[in-house]
Amino acid sequence: MKQIVVSAGIITRDDKFFVALRNQDQHQGGCWEFPGGKCETDEAPLTALKRELAEECGIQVEEAEMFQRIDHDYGDKAVQLHFFLVKKFAGEPHGKEGQVVAWVTLPELSELTFPAANQPIVDALVQQAAL
């Protein structure tokens, strides 16, 4: 089974997180996610993050740092996810591809349904905030 490499951005502002709802026809459709997408062949995860967030959310990433890498096997698909904390960006994030998006607080984030591979990130953000 081929592994898909994905970069995703944890975009924050004013103690809120920017999330997008996956379309029903996508893998894990109907779940919320941190925006991002597949890395092209030989594309570095940070480069992919910048490209994907420009395409999906209309922002230019100015500062991002690696948060966590997760390897997850869904059974029908294996993914390697690179999650970045997007600390600084230009532009106003929006659903550039028509996807439903929202700014949510940490308690609201905990209530949303995420793909299984994303849940450890939500848990880590909650744990980090509790420190």
From TrEMBL:
Q: Which residues bind 8-oxo-dGTP?
A: 22, 27, 33-36, 118
Tell me which SUPFAM superfamilies the record gives. Nudix
Q: Where is the Nudix hydrolase domain?
A: 1-129
Please list the cofactors this protein needs.
Answer: Mg(2+)
Q: Which UniProt keywords apply?
A: DNA damage, DNA repair, DNA replication, Hydrolase, Magnesium, Metal-binding, Mutator protein
Query: What residues bind Mg(2+), as annotated?
Result: 36, 56
Name any Gene Ontology BP term.
DNA repair
Q: Which domain of life is it from?
A: Bacteria
Task: Return the EC number.
Answer: 3.6.1.55
Top EC category? hydrolase
Cross-referenced InterPro entries: Mutator_MutT (IPR003561), MutT-like (IPR047127), MutY_C (IPR029119), Nudix_hydrolase (IPR020476), NUDIX_hydrolase-like_dom_sf (IPR015797), NUDIX_hydrolase_CS (IPR020084), NUDIX_hydrolase_dom (IPR000086)
The reaction(s) annotated as catalysed by this protein in its Swiss-Prot or TrEMBL entry are: 8-oxo-GTP + H2O = 8-oxo-GMP + diphosphate + H(+); 8-oxo-dGTP + H2O = 8-oxo-dGMP + diphosphate + H(+)
Q: MF terms per GO, please?
A: 8-oxo-7,8-dihydrodeoxyguanosine triphosphate pyrophosphatase activity; 8-oxo-7,8-dihydroguanosine triphosphate pyrophosphatase activity; 8-oxo-dGDP phosphatase activity; 8-oxo-GDP phosphatase activity; metal ion binding
Q: Which PANTHER family match?
A: 8-OXO-DGTP DIPHOSPHATASE, NUDIX HYDROLASE FAMILY PROTEIN
Give the protein family: Belongs to the Nudix hydrolase family.
Name of this chain's protein: 8-oxo-dGTP diphosphatase
